[in-house]
Design goal:
By secondary structure, the protein is mainly beta. Helices cover 6% and strands 59% of the residues. Strands 2-3-4-6-7-8-9-13-14-15-16-17-18-19 form a 14-stranded antiparallel beta barrel. The radius of gyration is 24 Å and the shape is elongated.
């Protein structure tokens, strides 16, 4: 009965999640370039620990940053993770202030064992977000006003983004060594529009629209080395690689003039079906701790974004490096008397380069996070909550917006034993 109820709940949540999934409406000017603003990678448990996961293994959570970790899923068990997040974005440039917020579906993750030391997972996760809306109105009173151009309103909008759907497997080769791989499908569209409406009623206005579509299959490869020693202590090391890959791509760019009388004059129409190239990503990590007590870890990742080629998006790429660190502490996981002692307490931080490069300068990011794993009664299942603060900035405050983004996420992490025959009715 318990498994039946869990199955019904799981199916209902899956249908609900696909009905509410969509565009995250966080208005960031850094979404205007390339393939948009890259989303943080990792489950909410991972994000609350700064984003580490390359060298972390756990039987009740899915760490898809390294598919070798799937081999840690318990025999006859089932893991399901579903998450929503709410983001608040505060933009500052000089004396100007902007604010936007939104709640959105984040991920679905599923995992189960095939045999002892052999796990299978699947998931739907975000990859990038291309939403933004920027409006500038210039009148005779503004310093930017030019008599020849006159008054005008410029509106720049973007929507869409890219997602990843993956299926992976992890296998223990020995007690101290595991390997794994993900097959990942990237898909999605980004559309952008730049419109200028002049104050002069009798002139032609300007509109440029573009659309980028990407789709294709790639693979992630990973390995983990585990060194257990006395009294449940451990040291793990991990490495994972996503090779560079060409993806199917369609790009359209239309520029036209139009008047209030309905006449339209097409200035240019460009289509390009050349395949896009997304570069390789290499991750390494180390973790140590005591089983069911504490875990601490560090991840390093780099991506050669300078090698990327995406139609209509050239010139804004820079290689990235990220440093992520975090820890988790559980006072007493199996306590029968204190709920607070069974709560999992997490903290982390990250320092990284954004892949966006504007006027020769690369955007920087820095952030801190914390979270809690709240156990459900008489179950290994839990609710994961994380809080993250990330700042994006450039060295020239007059050129770049300072972006302060606050994110709150909540996920249901279900863990249950399946395919077990009860001894008693």
């Amino acid at each position: 009965m318990h498994n039946l109820r869990a199955t019904i709940i799981l199916v209902n949540i899956l249908f609900y999640s696909f009905s509410v999934s969509g565009q995250k409406l966080i208005n960031s000017p850094y979404s205007r370039f390339n393939i948009g603003l890259l989303e943080p990678a990792g489950s909410f448990r991972s994000i609350s620990m700064g984003g580490i996961g390359t060298a972390v293994r756990d039987n009740s959570s899915i760490y898809y940053l390294n598919p070798a970790s799937y081999s840690s899923i318990d025999t006859n068990s089932f893991v399901f993770d579903f998450g929503l997040d709410y983001g608040m974005d505060f933009l500052t440039k000089g004396s100007s202030r902007y604010f936007s917020d939104d709640m959105n579906f984040d991920h679905i993750l599923l995992g189960f064992p095939v045999a002892r030391g052999f796990g299978i997972t699947a998931g739907l996760i975000p990859f990038s977000n291309g939403y933004y809306k920027i409006t500038e109105e210039v009148t005779e009173l503004d310093p930017e006003y030019d008599e020849q151009t006159g008054e005008y309103i410029a509106t720049h909008t973007g929507k869409g983004g890219f997602s990843k759907l993956f299926l992976g497997a992890g296998l223990n080769i020995t007690k101290c060594f595991s390997v794994g791989a993900n097959m990942t499908i990237i898909f999605g569209d980004i559309t952008r529009s730049n419109q200028i409406i002049f104050g002069d009623y009798y002139v032609f206005h300007d509109n440029t629209s573009e659309k980028l579509h990407l789709s294709g299959i790639n693979f992630d490869y990973g390995a983990q080395f585990m060194l257990p020693f006395g009294d449940d202590y451990f040291v793990n090391a991990g490495i994972s690689l996503t090779p560079g890959k060409k993806y199917n791509s369609d790009y359209e760019n239309l520029t036209c003039l139009y008047s209030v009388y309905g006449s339209i004059d097409t200035l240019s129409y460009i289509t390009d079906g050349t395949k896009a190239f997304l570069p390789r990503t290499l991750r390494t990590g180390i973790s140590f701790g005591k089983k069911n007590k504490f875990t601490a870890g560090f991840d390093y990742a780099e991506t050669k974004w300078s090698e990327a080629t995406i139609n209509g998006m050239g010139g804004y790429y820079a290689d990235t490096r990220s440093y992520k660190f975090g820890a988790e502490y559980i006072p007493e996981k199996l306590s029968n008397y204190s709920f607070l002692k069974r709560v999992e307490y997490r903290i982390g931080g990250h320092i990284e380069d954004n892949y966006l490069k504007i006027d020769g300068e690369q955007i920087k990011e820095i952030g801190i996070s914390l979270g809690f794993g709240i156990p459900m009664r008489r179950s290994i299942s839990k609710t994961n909550i994380f809080f993250d603060y990330t700042k994006r900035y450039g060295s020239d405050a007059s050129l770049f917006h300072i972006e302060n983004q606050f994110t709150i996420g909540l996920s249901l992490n279900m863990y249950d034993f399946w395919f077990l025959k009860p001894k008693y009715d």
